[in-house]
Amino acid sequence: MALALKSIKAYLKLGAIILLLVIALLIVFMNRNHKADIWFFRRYQQVNVLWLILVTAVISVIGWWMVRKIVSVVREVKQIRRSSKAEAKLDEQQRLAEKLLEREKRIDEKVRRSITEE
Predict the structure, then answer these.
(1) What's the pTM value of the predicted model, to 2 decimals?
(2) 3-class secondary structure for 18-73?
(3) Contact yes or no for 28/50 (Cβ under 8 A)
(4) Alpha-carbon span 25 to 28, nearest angstrom
(5) In 3D, which of 81, 83, 63, 82 has the Cα closest to residue 71?
(6) Measured distance CA(74)–CA(69) in Å, rounded
(7) I need a labelling partner for 105 at 20 to 30 A (CA). Which of 31, 46, 75, 89 fits?
(8) Do 50 and 31 contact (CB within 8 A), yes or no?
């Protein structure tokens, strides 16, 4: 039963991939002669739509990659800040513990002196 489900799932994925490929080829075929006027700081006339689609796709992928990198860097910076705060707290606790230990030693020494004097 599990093998049948896996094979159905695999064939559905294959069908979806073939459908997407056919759609992409249809878009290329239907737009092969279409031109568009675009403006990018100066006027380009009669740019092929396929080149426009290709450039838009490449810029979109690069933009998405850059956004992901920026988000990951921001996360790293936040994590570093949290770690440095935690480390500072730990250092402060350790300093206070050493100070307390020193006080306890002084108090123990005073108690010993008072016991031995009596």
Answers:
(1) 0.55
(2) HHHHHHHHHHHHHCCCCEEEEECCCEEEEEEHHHHHHHHHHHHHHHHHHHHHHHHH
(3) yes
(4) 5
(5) 63
(6) 9
(7) 89
(8) yes
Q: Is 31 exposed, middle or buried (0-12, 13-18, 19+ CB in 10 A)?
A: middle
How many CB atoms are located within 10 Å of the residue 55 CB?
13
pLDDT digits (tens, 9 = 90+) for 41-71: 877 778 888 888 889 999 999 999 999 999 9
> How does pLDDT run across 13-24, given as a tens digit for each residue?
999 999 999 999
Q: How far apart are CA 49 and CA 36, in angstroms?
A: 6
Question: Strand, coil or helix: what is 108?
Answer: helix
Are 46 and 37 within 8 A, CB to CB?
yes
The strand pairing partners of 44, in sequence order, are: 38
